[in-house]
Amino acid sequence: MKIELGPLGPKPSEQILGLILLFTMMTTLGLRLLPRIERLRAERWEATEGRVEHAEELRAEAESLRQARLQELTAARHQAARIRQDYAEQGAASIAAARAEALRDRKALLAATHAALDADRVQANARLREDVGELAVTLAGRVVGEPVHTVAAERRTVDRFFADR
């Protein structure tokens, strides 16, 4: 069945020319205009939504870095607390050792001092007895009116007096 279109019916030469122009136009659009349009659309998308996505990516990366730094900081704080605790324990041990050494030195010094005092006391006591004996003999000689040194030396009177005490 053939429909008569009259003046609307295309002529074959016009159809061929139309097809050639259509393919030329499609080729020009595909090779030249569509890449430019796509590039422009991509640039506009990057300028608007791409920046938002990029900002979200940066924000997520910054948050992950922040979390990593917080974990490092927490670990560093724990390590610092351990170090402080270790040094506090070492300090307490050092203080206890120094205190024990000081007590030993104190006891040794006290023992040496007591020994020196005892020796000085014995020496002073002997010297005092000697001096008191001489003074007693001198005083007795003055009271009696004549020297009693020889009598006191022969009888050892002063030594017996101190021995009784």
Describe the secondary structure blueprint for this structure.
Blueprint: H1 12-144, H2 149-155, H3 157-164
Task: Explain this structure.
The protein is mostly helical. 90% of the residues lie in helices and 0% in strands. The chain has three helices and no strands. It is rod-shaped. The mean pLDDT is 86.
Structural class from helices and strands?
Answer: mainly alpha
Radius of gyration using CA atoms only: 62 Å
**Number of helix segments?**
3
Q: What is the number of E strands?
A: 0
Approximate helicity band:
over 70%
Mean pLDDT across all residues, rounded?
86
Tell me the overall shape: rod-shaped
Percent strand equals under 5%
Order of helices and strands: HHH
Biggest sheet record: none
Descriptors for this entry?
90% helix, 3 helices, mainly alpha, 165 residues
In summary, what is this structure?
The protein is mainly α.
